[in-house]
Design a protein that fits this description.
The chain contains six helices and six strands; from the N terminus they run E-H-E-H-E-H-H-E-E-E-H-H. The chain is of the alpha/beta class. Bound molecules: inosine 5'-triphosphate.
Length: 185
């Protein structure tokens, strides 16, 4: 079985491949740009994206919209995470958090999966903290500043370890259980 991962982000594909290998499901990276509507809900972005992709005749795919929600910044960058990463980057986020003692943050990942004509949408969450400096070389995006255990950043651990704790790993576990419930795998 093969699933297309439609994304501009090769880091996501690596994580999906790692999560699905044990099930014999192969991931194929497909770079197919689609409009991501501006809304406050990741789920809405995913729902609309799936409709757009199906209109192009593509089936058996995964898309994912993710965001980092920082408590002391009232949920920023949240649904603007891609824009904030491209503009102010991790350094800019750390500047905004200078001398801020409440470091709590939540990473969210909403996956939309089209398989066997069915639609499955699931959301995974990872609660953690924003570190005071960037750490590590693995991963991508906000990984060097996000910690799931208050010590290590996601950029200091392997893909496999990240999947054990991350928002995307948690979303994938929900997706796999739903695919099994519907006897699709
Ligand atoms: P696609 O929309 O093409 O899939 P993207 O990288 O723009 O790729 P998102 O909109 O879902 O993906 O992500 C918003 C931002 O959050 C973006 O800058 C990502 O690099 C970052 N991000 C998403 N998941 C992440 C993760 O697991 N670790 C670190 N940063 C992440």
């Amino acid at each position: 079985m093969k699933l297309k991962v439609i994304t501009s982000n090769p880091g996501k594909v690596r994580e999906y491949q790692n999560s699905f290998t044990h099930l014999g499901i192969e991931m194929e990276h497909l770079h197919l740009p689609y409009d991501e509507i501006q809304t406050f809900q990741l789920e809405e972005v995913v729902e609309k994206g799936m409709v757009e992709i199906r209109k192009k005749g593509v089936t058996d795919f995964i898309i994912d919209d993710s965001g980092l929600f920082i408590d002391s910044l009232k949920g920023f960058p949240g649904v603007w995470s891609a824009f904030a990463q491209k503009t102010i980057g991790n350094e800019g986020i750390l500047k905004l958090m200078k001398n801020v003692s409440d470091r709590k943050a939540e990473f969210k990942c909403c996956i939309g999966c089209d398989f066997g004509g069915e639609t499955i949408i699931v959301t995974g969450i990872c609660n953690g903290t924003i570190l005071t400096t960037e750490k590590g070389k693995e991963g991508f995006g906000y990984d060097p500043i996000f910690s799931y255990d208050g010590k290590l950043s996601f950029a200091e651990i392997s893909t496999e370890e990240k999947n054990n704790f991350s928002h995307r790993g948690n979303a994938v576990r929900l997706l796999i259980s739903e695919l099994k419930n519907r006897s699709l795998i």
